[in-house]
Amino acid sequence: MAISVYMSGEKIKIAVGSGGAASLNVSALYDLPLDEASPVGGVLTPESGITDKLSEIWKSYSFPRSGVKLTVDSAQFYLKPLRLPKLSDKKLLAMISHEFTENNSFELPIIDYKVLRRNLKNIDIVAAAVEKSFIESYISAFSAAGIKLSSVDCAVCSALDFFMGIKSIAKKTYIAELTEGDTLQSVLVCDGIYRYSRRARLFSEPGSPDYAAEIGRTVSAILQFHASEKIESRVENIYFCGLASEYADAVIDGVKNTYGIAASLPPPDSNYRIASVVTTENGVSEAKAGDYVAICGNLMSGRTLK
Q: CA 8 to CA 183: how far, in whole Å?
């Protein structure tokens, strides 16, 4: 069994279980507050008290202190879909590095990639770049709390691991709307391949008509990108993750009626077994799989720190 940790805004989410490319078994979920120790814009600072908070959480729940897989929601990550020739890992990283450093002012980036599909001569990948200092701040904070990280990933890539493992949509074209607090990450997948993502801040009161309209506008922006790229496959579904139960139906129905596209929570998969309850600071409550896409997908990833 492994432990997956997701950090975003004022929360830390934890999943205990195991996973593979198309299988997932989550035995326990935790959804806990970070309070004043929350990262600012995804960035950890020594003054935040994050080390003490991590130590407190790990002691309270007796989590294992090694082999911990971390995924982070932050605008610090830059993602790019690429189709490249089949090459050695070293040559691929060199090509990807050129793609990022040509137009971005990185000081000392860490660059990695996830293979989405292998063709006869080429591979489709999503490449990621982030400042080394950003990753090191997380490794240092967890290490100071006596916790050893085995991997650090970005939330979008972890979510892709989750969605790509669902057999019924493996080669479909869809939008995944990932809500976490006041952040909305929109991800466009075409024919099973990542094409584009857009991060937005939500300013309206959750559950209000303005909130639903704001989310609708982000959907519109993704559909406009899809049209501008002249992508042949049409968007068949929009999947919503992280919406509170009391207003999820209103948001989903509004998008469905406005754009005439099927909208719902993520579809189930027979190879996914996810705990039906989640432990919070107030006890145990019902868990919705769509609220834990990133940490669950992180369990399915084989990526490790290099």
A: 9
Q: Which of 62, 33, 59, 72 is nearest to 152 (CA)?
A: 72
Q: Tokens representing 277?
A: 């309850």
* Per-residue tokens: 43: 């960035």
- Name every residue whose Cβ is closer than 8 Å to that of residue 43 and which is 6 or more positions away in sequence: 74, 76, 134, 137
Q: How far is CA 203 from the centre of its chain?
A: 21
* The token pair that represents 143 in the structure block: 């290490």
Burial of 81 (0-12, 13-18, 19+ CB in 10 A): middle
Rounded Cα distance between 65 and 70, Å, is: 12
CA 152 to chain centre: 12
Contact present, 94 and 27 (Cβ < 8 Å): no
The pLDDT-based confidence of 99 (bands split at 50, 70, 90) is confident
Window from 102-106, 187-191, 216-220, 230-234 with minimum mean pLDDT: 102-106
* Spatial contact of 169 and 269, defined as CB atoms under 8 Å apart: no
Amino acid (one-letter) located at 55: S
User: Cβ distance 272 to 14 under 8 Å?
Assistant: no
Reduced to 3 states, what is the DSSP secondary structure of residue 203? coil
Beta strands in 162-282 (DSSP E): 174-180, 183-190, 193-201, 237-241, 262-264, 272-274, 277-280
Structure tokens at 83: 């189709």
Question: pLDDT class for 108, splitting at 50, 70, 90?
Answer: confident
With residue 19 as reference, give the H or E element that holds it: strand 11-20
Residue 165 token pair: 């493992």
Contact 163, 155 (CB under 8 A): no
Give the whole-angstrom CA distance, residue 104 versus residue 120.
31
Kind of pairing between the strands at 68-72 and 109-118: unpaired
* pTM, two decimal places: 0.93
- Name residue 57's amino acid: I
